[in-house]
Write a structure and sequence with these properties.
This protein has 15 helices and 15 strands. By secondary structure, the chain is an alpha/beta fold. A hairpin with a 4-residue loop joins strand 10 and strand 11.
Length: about 375
C-alpha cells in the first residue's frame, strides 16, 4: 500500500465497532460500525466504512479513505498551527506538518469520502468547512498533481502517475466488500491469489484507462498476491454461517443426531462447492444409515419419521394429512426433509447449533 501498491498487510475489521492499527505499507479496513483506525510508521492506509469513524494519523504518510455515510473525525499529532495544506484537483485534501514533514492525504474529501471534523492532539477542533477555507486562504490553495508530488517530496513519481495512484487508492477504499466476501466464501483463504483475484475483479473495472494502465505496469495484482489478509476469515465466516447452519440442521433432521465432525466437514465441503440443499437432502435420504434406521417406504411412514426426528413427537392428524397431500401432488421426499430441517421447531431443538464455528484451520466444528 502506498503511492504504489506494495506487499504488506490488510487488517479487516467487522460490521461492529473495531479498533485497528496499521503501519509500513499496511492498510486498516474498518468495514461498517463506528471504528477507530490508527496509522504509524511509514506510508499507511486507513479505510473506514459506514459509521462514525475516528482516524488517528500517526504515520509519516497517512492515506485516509472513507466510504461516507457517517460523522467522521481525523486526529493529527501536534498543533493545528503546525500544518499547511492544499486541495488537489479531483477533490482530495493534503495536510503537511511543517515541523516534522509528516503528511495526511484525505482522498475524496470533497466527495463521498468527506470527513466532517478535524482535531489536533491538544483538543483544538475545526469543521471540514473551516479546514477547507483555511487551506484556500492561508495554505497552498488548489494545486495540481505535479505540484503535489513536490509538496509530498515524492521522488520519481510524475503528476499523471500520482493521479492514477490516488484514483486506485480511492476506489479500493470505497469498495463494496459484501459481494466480495460472498464470493470468497467458496475460496481457499490460505491462497492469497484467490483473494487478490476477487479484489482485482471488483476494483479494476471501476478504474479509468490511465489507472488501469498503472495497475498493470506496476504489477498491483502481484503485490496483492504477496499481501497478508488479516481478519478476513472472520468476515467470510459471517457470510458462510447461514449455509453452514442449514447443512448442520439438515444433517440432524435426517439422521436424528447431532452431526459428527467428519460428516459435517464432508457435507459442508459439498455445500461450499455448489451443492444445493434440496440435492443434499436427497443424498441423506438415500444414505445407508437413513435407509437402515428408518422405515420410509411409504409416504405416511416417511412423514412420521420426520416428525419424530425433528419435532420429537409423532405426526398429528392435521400435519400428517397436510404433508401427505403435498407429496401426493408431487412434492419429493427431499424437499419435505428440507422444509422440516429449516423449521423453527428444528432450530429450537438444536441448542448445539450455538457451538458451530469455523476453526482456525478452516474446518467448521461444533464445540
Amino acid at each position: 500500500m502506498g503511492f504504489y501498491l506494495e506487499p504488506g498487510s490488510f487488517f479487516f475489521g467487522s460490521a461492529g465497532d473495531d479498533t485497528l492499527s496499521a503501519a509500513d505499507a499496511g492498510l486498516a479496513i474498518g468495514l461498517d460500525g463506528d471504528d477507530t483506525l490508527r496509522s504509524y510508521g511509514g506510508v499507511t492506509g486507513l479505510h473506514g466504512g459506514q459509521g462514525d469513524d475516528v482516524y488517528r494519523a500517526d504515520a509519516w504518510v497517512t492515506q485516509v479513505v472513507d466510504a461516507g455515510g457517517g460523522n467522521d473525525r481525523l486526529r493529527v499529532p501536534g498543533h493545528v498551527d503546525d500544518y499547511t495544506g492544499a486541495l488537489i484537483e479531483g477533490g482530495h485534501l493534503v495536510l503537511v506538518n511543517l515541523w516534522t514533514g509528516a503528511s495526511v492525504v484525505v482522498l475524496d474529501q470533497l466527495g463521498a469520502g468527506r470527513l466532517e471534523h478535524f482535531e489536533d492532539q491538544y483538543g483544538n477542533h475545526m469543521s471540514a468547512q473551516q479546514v477547507e477555507q483555511s487551506v484556500r486562504s492561508d495554505g497552498l490553495g488548489v494545486i495540481g498533481y505535479p505540484q503535489l508530488a513536490e509538496v509530498l517530496a515524492v521522488e520519481g513519481v510524475g503528476g499523471n502517475q500520482l493521479e492514477a495512484a490516488f484514483e486506485i487508492e480511492t476506489r479500493l477504499g470505497q469498495l463494496d466488500w459484501a459481494p466480495i466476501m460472498s464470493r470468497l466464501a467458496d475460496a481457499a483463504l490460505d491462497d492469497a491469489g484467490e483473494v487478490a483475484a476477487e479484489i482485482s475483479a471488483a476494483l479494476v473495472p471501476q478504474l479509468s484507462w490511465s489507472a488501469q494502465s498503472l495497475w498493470q505496469s506496476m504489477c498491483y495484482e502481484q503485490a496483492l498476491q504477496a499481501t497478508r489478509f488479516v481478519g478476513l476469515e472472520a468476515q467470510v465466516e459471517v457470510v458462510n454461517r447461514p449455509l453452514a447452519e442449514s447443512v448442520a440442521l439438515l444433517y440432524a433432521a435426517a439422521l436424528d443426531r447431532r452431526p459428527d465432525a467428519e460428516g459435517l466437514s464432508y457435507w459442508l465441503d459439498q455445500a461450499f462447492s455448489g451443492m444445493k440443499v434440496p440435492e443434499m437432502a436427497g443424498y441423506f435420504i438415500a444414505s445407508q444409515e437413513f435407509q437402515q434406521r428408518f422405515d420410509v417406504a411409504a409416504d405416511a411412514a416417511f412423514i412420521n419419521t420426520l416428525y419424530l426426528n425433528v419435532l420429537d413427537r409423532p405426526a398429528d392428524e392435521g400435519g400428517q394429512q397436510y404433508w401427505a397431500e403435498q407429496m401426493a401432488d408431487g412434492l419429493p421426499q427431499a424437499e419435505v426433509l428440507m422444509y422440516f430441517s429449516a423449521s423453527d421447531e428444528n432450530r429450537a431443538n438444536a441448542d448445539w447449533l450455538a457451538g458451530l464455528s469455523r476453526h482456525d484451520a478452516g474446518d467448521w466444528v461444533i464445540a
